[in-house]
């Protein structure tokens, strides 16, 4: 009993050191618990992959799959997720693919825009895996649809492993969580299961440049311009996003972008409603717009939804959720 009293007395007399030690041990315990949970997720995913390989090659059982994956080409962007994409792929996705008996060929990009050229020169493969973020996916889709044999090559199923900082396509294909490792392993397992879903493709044409293609839409404006400069302030750590917006505001204020949009209405006007006449802007505003167009003519572009759809691997849980929402 005297020893316990002595311990509490020491903690009370050195309360600052005691508080610091408690904080350090609490953070260390939380960090170790997170690493343990990630290891458990990897182990479970690898076990599922091994079971799939056993069922495919050691028994006569044939799983109900839309596609039996044999060879896959992986387009990996090592610069995604602040340079952590290569490590994330090697630890969380590559072992699952190897254990499932998939012969993968990893092609790493060295600079922005290289994925387009690689896809244009790539040979036919059983499936294509994009390991990166939104930028990598957009480059791969653009390179794929620029190929001379796009009619046949576009039938190749595509898998998306979310390794980037922005993964806009992931919510449409997988059930997301707050754990990066779980999202990566779930996306990899959905590729092995082979269920696909067709997705629309948006084509953007300019006056001189070749058309580019997108899946989840098109972002344009001041916030998009600032987002492209965030990486320049890496030395500010967690404040780099705020610094990018702050310095961009100082350089250019107000942050205004002029745009003119024309589109075709999907439906005709009901016959019982008279045509609406929109109010005309005042004379001063029209003069200013004319002067702006004279000194800096706008860049014309054409956006079109292609009739062709690309097939992406989707998780069974996400497919069931989408079907339930449609009913």
From TrEMBL:
List keywords of the entry alphabetically: ATP-binding, Kinase, Lipid metabolism, Membrane, Mitochondrion, Mitochondrion inner membrane, Nucleotide-binding, Transferase
* MF (Gene Ontology): acylglycerol kinase activity; ATP binding; ATP-dependent diacylglycerol kinase activity; ceramide kinase activity
Statement: the UniProt record of this protein carries the keyword ATP-binding: yes
Which pathway is this protein assigned to? Lipid metabolism; glycerolipid metabolism
What positions belong to coiled-coil segments? none
SUPFAM superfamilies reported in the protein's UniProt record: NAD kinase/diacylglycerol kinase-like
Q: Say yes or no: keyword Methyltransferase present.
A: no
Swiss-Prot/TrEMBL cofactor(s): Mg(2+)
Q: Name the Enzyme Commission number(s) assigned to this protein.
A: 2.7.1.107, 2.7.1.138, 2.7.1.94
Q: An example of a Gene Ontology BP annotation on this entry?
A: sphingosine biosynthetic process
Principal place of residence = mitochondrion
Q: Which reaction does it catalyse?
A: 1,2-di-(9Z-octadecenoyl)-sn-glycerol + ATP = 1,2-di-(9Z-octadecenoyl)-sn-glycero-3-phosphate + ADP + H(+); a monoacylglycerol + ATP = a monoacyl-sn-glycero-3-phosphate + ADP + H(+); N-(hexanoyl)sphing-4-enine + ATP = N-hexanoylsphing-4-enine 1-phosphate + ADP + H(+); 1-hexadecanoyl-sn-glycerol + ATP = 1-hexadecanoyl-sn-glycero-3-phosphate + ADP + H(+)
Q: Where found? A: Mitochondrion inner membrane; Mitochondrion intermembrane space
Q: Which residues form the DAGKc domain?
A: 67-208
| Name assigned to this protein | Acylglycerol kinase, mitochondrial
Q: Which organism is it from?
A: Amphiprion ocellaris
């Amino acid at each position: 009993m005297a020893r316990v009293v002595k311990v509490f007395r020491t903690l009370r007399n050195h309360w600052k050191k005691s508080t610091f030690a408690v904080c350090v041990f609490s953070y260390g315990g939380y960090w170790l618990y997170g690493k343990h949970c990630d290891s458990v997720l990897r182990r479970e995913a690898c076990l599922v992959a091994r079971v799939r390989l056993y069922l495919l090659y050691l028994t006569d059982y044939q799983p109900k799959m839309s596609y039996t994956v044999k060879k896959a080409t992986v387009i990996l962007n090592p610069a995604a997720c602040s340079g952590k994409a290569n490590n994330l792929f090697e630890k969380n996705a590559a072992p699952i693919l190897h254990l499932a008996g998939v012969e993968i060929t990893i092609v790493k990009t060295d600079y922005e825009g290289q994925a387009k050229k690689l896809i244009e020169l790539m040979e036919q493969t059983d499936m294509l895996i994009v390991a990166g973020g939104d930028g990598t996916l957009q480059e791969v889709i653009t390179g794929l649809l620029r190929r001379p044999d796009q009619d046949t090559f576009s039938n190749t199923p595509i898998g998306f492993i979310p390794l980037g900082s922005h993964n806009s396509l992931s919510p449409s294909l997988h059930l997301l969580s707050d754990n990066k490792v779980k999202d990566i392993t779930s996306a990899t397992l959905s590729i092995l299961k082979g269920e696909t879903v067709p997705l629309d493709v948006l084509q953007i044409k300019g006056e001189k440049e070749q058309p580019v293609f997108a899946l989840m839409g098109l972002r344009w404006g001041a916030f998009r311009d600032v987002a492209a400069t965030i990486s320049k302030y890496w030395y500010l750590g967690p404040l780099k996003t705020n610094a990018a917006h702050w310095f961009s505001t100082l350089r250019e204020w107000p942050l205004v972008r002029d745009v003119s949009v024309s589109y075709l209405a999907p439906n005709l006007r009901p016959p019982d409603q008279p045509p609406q006449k929109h109010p005309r802007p005042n004379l001063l505003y029209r003069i200013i717009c004319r002067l702006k167009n004279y000194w800096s003519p706008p860049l014309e572009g054409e956006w079109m939804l292609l009739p062709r759809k690309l097939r992406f691997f989707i998780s069974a849980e996400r497919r069931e959720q989408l079907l339930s929402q449609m009913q």
